[in-house]
Amino acid sequence: MTESEWLDCNNPRLMLRHLRRPLGRDWWTTWYRLPNRVPRKWRLFAVACCRRLRRLNRHEGMLLDFVETVADSPAGKVDWDATEVECKRLASFCRHSWSTTDVYYGGLTANVAGHVRREIARRAASKYKGSQNPVVQGWILNGERCRQADLLRDIFGNPFSPVSTNPTWLTPSVITLAPAAYEERPLPSGELDTARLAVLADALEEAGCHDTDILGHLRSPGPHVRGCWVLDALLGKS
After folding, report:
1. Is the CB of residue 20 less than 8 Å from the CB of residue 106?
2. Within this chain, do residues 127 and 29 fall inside the same structural domain, yes or no?
3. CB within 8 A of 231, min separation 6: which ones?
4. Model confidence over 16-28: pLDDT tens digits?
5. Distance CA 237, CA 5 (A)
6. Longest dimension (CA), the chain
């Protein structure tokens, strides 16, 4: 995949395949056995896809919140035995939507994304007249593929042209606004508040940041979710 293909791609499966390539052939076996080694951004992408289902019951919401907490926990600070028990306990509430073990153990690739796409299409077919038409189903699935591709670009940025932040940009305003933009978000969608991100962009610009990629991304309509590459760079997350 080239840079232009990445920026224009609407196929999350191809994008995930490109991101997975540098990780080596044994990535699945290793991370399946050692869930604490599943990359944070891959976990957060899976959660963002699942939140697209919208109609989440309390237990499903708890599971996604828990996976996010695990993803953002410092190394060595998570009780993995308790984590496994909690996920197994919640699994029975989520079987109709996705495989909980896939979300937790590392199936954070096309399997989770593909399942969410199919579930959204199924729900649309049961709700709207005419949605069972194959053409309409194709439109729904294609629209969800585009949305997931946008989520990947929000979380991973442009892997062909990584952007670094300047420590001088971390003024008191930026240090205050960045964590707030990451933490404060409407649920169940889990998407970040674009108004907060726009204010953060203004603060960065006042601090001397003139990087069009950074400012343009923060001021874009999104979608923006936890794992957003600009916020991660400002907060020192990876």
Report:
1. no
2. yes
3. 178, 181, 182, 192, 237
4. 888 876 554 444 4
5. 26
6. 56
Q: Are 46 and 35 in contact (CB under 8 A)?
A: no
**135-169 as b/e: b if 16+ CB within 10 A:** eebeebbeebbebbbbbbbbbbbebeeeeebeeeb
Residues 204, 108, single domain; the answer is no
Same domain, 185 and 116: no
9 and 100, same domain (yes or no): yes
Confidence of residue 8 (pLDDT cuts 50, 70, 90): very high
Question: What is the domain range of residue 229?
Answer: 167-235
Q: How confident is the model at residue 153 (pLDDT cuts 50, 70, 90)?
A: very high
Considering the chain, what is the average pLDDT of its residues? 78
Total domains in the fold of the chain: 2
